[in-house]
Design brief:
It comes from Arsenophonus nasoniae. Its EC number is 3.5.1.19. By secondary structure, the protein is of the alpha/beta class. It has a single domain, classed as Rossmann fold, CATH 3.40.50.850. The chain is built from five helices and eight strands; from the N terminus they run βαββββαβαβαβα. The strands form two sheets. A six-stranded parallel sheet has the order 5-2-1-6-7-8, sandwiched between helices. Strands 3-4 form a two-stranded antiparallel ribbon. Strand 6, helix 3 and strand 7 form a beta-alpha-beta unit. Helix 3 packs parallel to helix 4.
Length: 222
Amino acid sequence: MSDSALLLVDLQNDFCNGGALAVLDSESVINTANEVITYCQQHDIAIIASQDWHPADHLSFAVNSATKVGTEGKLNGLRQIWWPVHCVQHQKGAEFHPALNQSAIQAIFQKGVNAIIDSYSAFFDNDHQHATQLDYWLTQNQIKHLYIMGLATDYCVKFTVLDALQLGYQVTVIQDGCRGVNLDPEDSHNALQEMALAGAKLITSSDLPIHFFDRANDFRQK
């Protein structure tokens, strides 16, 4: 196995068409994900995924905090957007999209399981008090570089990328494999710029053959 992994962020029913928190044009992300998965399988690159996995009483849900969806407030002292009920454990909305090539996924890392704090990043909760098993798995498998794509650009993708960079991983964001919530129209654009300024490389899926070749050469030279 190479020292790279593909991390698919939250490609779940509730973030896709007809879901509780559907992201515009999410279906194209599933198609791109399957194409990228094929590339990764051909180049011996690990394929892993994060999964939003909330208890029904999660306080980020507007209905559980007596507030309105899409408004902003504080949850445990942290800035919080109040969301519709979504990705509830063991419900259909929390399942991966049925068109996604799920059989290729080697490990799944669930987040958002603590009812009193939100977790955008696949690595930590929003206060960085509790970690998922993602960093441990990557370390155990000697992964140094992550390709990251998924939903949504301006929340879970962005915070996953920023945490990965802080942890010392090299990160490449596959831009056409991401779509945003865009509560403000520029949110996704601004998120991508923030990721790039933090050190992430931004590419499109059409760049992957060249990028894989360069990464493979770097790996062989180590």
